[in-house]
Amino acid sequence: MQKRPCPVHWRTEEAKPWVLPVVRKVEKEMAEDSSLNHEYLGQLGLDDFSKAAVSMLLGSENQAIKDGRAVGVQCLSGTGSLRVGADMLCKHAKFTTVYMSTPTWPNHALVFKYAGFQNIKYYHYWDAKNRCLDFNAMIEDLQNAPEDSVVVLHACAHNPTGIDPTQDQWMKIADVMKAKKLFPFFDCAYQGFASGNLENDSWAIRYFVSQGFELVCAQSFAKNFGLYNERIGNLLLVIDDKEALTNVLAQITLLVRGNYSNPPNHGARIVSKVLNTPAYFEEWKSHIQTMASRIISMRKALQDKLHELGTPGNWEHITKQIGMFSYTGLNQQQVQHLVQNYHVYLPKDGRISICGLNTGNVEYVAKAIHDAVTKFPQS
Which one is catalytic: 105, 170, 284, 315? Predict the structure, then answer.
């Protein structure tokens, strides 16, 4: 049997990719608009798109936007936004140390390494024994981090664990980072896609901005717009000194020019049109609620099936987690059993993509997990 990797993109109940209806609608309008052309954008991208992306992230009434302290730069999706931000912080702001969670998205370390960061360090995050956030250890690590370290934070739907801090915990994290003079670098790949609510999923970033932090945030529109291959991202910059902000944008212009010259137009036009057109914006919000709801329902279905089977262990963490991924807590021996005997494919760390589940296969997956856990109990 040919191996089929676990989907890392959102899928329908029929396991098919979904082009959002509002995206189809806007693309048809664009195709019929003879005023549009394929000329280059400037290095900083489509201004209407970046302004709308910043407004979506912080809220249109955010004081930092009103004061001109928050601006966006169109980049090549989330990864490109991370890289431009990392290049700017390392080459021009002269940061040398970055902290990221254990575990984190594997590409984080690679991006910051090649941006030139000399010290790549990690803070505790996942408590494997209790299958939850190791909050006290995380706080201790941040308290021990040297001043002027960059800290990579997942805005919502932590990848790969699916565990996010509570709002009270975010407040404590902000307090520690302010006291230790640590610089926040948020990665926001799932706004709206995680909970179905744009404000909930950007709460942490909005709180940090309200507390007077200067920060950067990499935004991706791959998941929440389904525009995976269009590479549409935005780098948010919140900087108090307007003169410094002007200089930063000038340096970013040079970084982009020397890297990929300028960003793509097509996807940016789609996102801009949707975010700046009230009717389309409301339609899009219904789409992200659809995507988030299916993921949430599949989490509950898997948990319920495991409970029905009497699967050993506590599986409450599955519905406490959020977003595309779940750290199941399965060990390598159990994972190997799933792969070899049930053709359920997942990494050795036990992470699964909830998007790969549907009503047709969730019972099969639950029975496979039950068999693996029963035959190979946790030590």
Answer: 105
